[in-house]
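input
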Amino acid sequence: MKKSIYLAMLIMAAPLLSLAQWPSNVTFAASKANDSVVVSGDLANGAVISDLSWAWSSSNACFVGFQAPKYQGNHVLFATSFPPRSIMTITVTPTDANGNLSIYGYMMGADDHRVVPDLPSCITCEADYKWDRPVKGKVQTSDRVIEFQNPTQNTYNIVIGVAAPGGVVSGQFNVKIKLKS
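output
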């Protein structure tokens, strides 16, 4: 009986242990199977990351160096857990429809809690930002969207970064994390 109680307590405490491992500048957002979670943020609560070379490192391949100006403002970081056999779509929407935000997200092992710029490698990285010119047949809104797929039996961590161009240090937004299992 005691073993069952201890096991139940350990299972209930596991998500809290995961939260405790993230640095204080990362907001954890628990994803929900076949549902969406929305968290709010403000660039004013972030900080500039002066060294963006992690992003175009071949070990991360998040965005290319000539897109760096789109990420030279404040960065706000979020994290979530990515369960097995699921698809996660992350959408960032500024509260001001004219807001110019960029997004990136990277996937790493469930026990890995590294955050940029200290990211020597990741499993995969995705990014979205305002286009430099129109794309034929497409219309861009102020929403930025990235997607991850997990066909494995493993759970992963996803770190989401919301940033803006150089000099932009404030601006409110919502991050929507949609999980399809």
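quick obs: The radius of gyration is 17 Å.
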